[in-house]
Amino acid sequence: MNISLFLSRRPNALILAVVTSLLLAGAHARTWTSADGSKTFEGELQSYDATKGMVTVTLPNGRRLSFSQDKLSEADITFARENAPRAAGSSSSSGSIKELPDVLPDPDGEEADMSKPVQVYILMGQSNMLGFGKPSALQGIAAEKYPYLVDDAGEWTVRKDVRNVFVMCSGNSPAKDQQNDWMTIQRNIGPEIGIGHHLGYVTDAPVLILKSCIGNRSLGWDLLPPGSEPYEHGGKMQPGYRGTPDDPGGDTGGDMSKGWYAGCQYDGDVAAAKKVLENLDKYYPGAKDYEVAGFFWWQGDKDMRNPAHFEMYEKNLVQLIKALREDFDAPDARFVSASLGQTKKGSKGGDGQILDAMEAVAKSSDPEFEGKVAFVYTHPLSKGGSSSGHYSGNPETYMNVGEAMGKAMVELLRGN
Length: 416
Hints:
The chain has 416 residues and is α/β, with parallel strands linked by helices. The protein has two domains: 4-83, SH3 type barrels, CATH 2.30.30; 118-225 and 263-414, Rossmann fold, CATH 3.40.50. The chain is 29% helix and 19% strand. The chain is built from 13 helices and 13 strands. A seven-stranded mixed beta sheet has the order 7-6-8-5-11-12-13, with helices on both faces. It has a four-stranded antiparallel beta sheet with strand order 1-2-3-4. A hairpin with a 6-residue loop joins strand 1 and strand 2. The radius of gyration is 24 Å and the shape is globular. It starts with a helix and ends with a helix.
């Protein structure tokens, strides 16, 4: 039955003519069923917009139609949700984003579909993002708490569809490779492990987890993004992007020989990540193309100690998202932030203001952010200690936060 029956009441003769033409053309597509089960039609799924509840299909004659999902059976809605490339306005052409199971299975050892562009996720921040979880403390509990990390023999599993890359620089000096391998446990554990396993599971395309950061950096100074203007706090002017304390509105042009400037670490981290992408095959063997699908941000320890920084955190975070999307030519890239593990909601200190800022940006109704930014409250996930003490090296904290951030990104990608 032609799809017009889903959308309008048309004469049966016309319907039969259209169906006949499709059959004569030898069309081959999925058979879709109406919500009441009484009608069917042939069509190829093009996209599914979960936010609007809209499905787009291409008929065998080449005509493309969009209509509300409530005209389809539950089985068809599920198929569209699990198999459609994301709707227009998303940043990824990676294909379907699968649903997450309650417990991730072990990696299957298979490579990703290399015909698709590598889906790049850039991780930034300070020492929280660096990761100080001790692998030795994870070995005895991984099989129970994170079973996808170990195989039946008790060895660490390896994802052959996710690359784990870590580069580091100080300021905008040249970066050094810290890690470049398939996703597995090899060194201290950061949130990239949980993030990478979850994104690797749901994505058919190859995934590159690209961490570019260093410790002891603030968003209000070291990582201040382009577009940030000078402002007054406590009777003193604070530098804008590429300004200095002596010349808040100046532009050093990124010249570190004149001393550290506002945004110096932002420049370095972005440049380091771009260099990886310029040499993609070195970091993801066999890759030809990529797209930046999302950013992860775990930071705030240094800003929480400076009122001039934590009081501006929300504004700076908004500007950070905009700047990163522009720098990486990813206008719709998703963004996930995470609070400091020791901070409880309701805290009146600088750490609490940072948490509130992250949550406010994630709840923004601005079209640039709504449905594209998420926030993870990490206090319930932390196993003690604080960000300044690297959570005493407890790997569960880093795994728990990484899993939560990964799941949050999956929800953004699926449009849920």
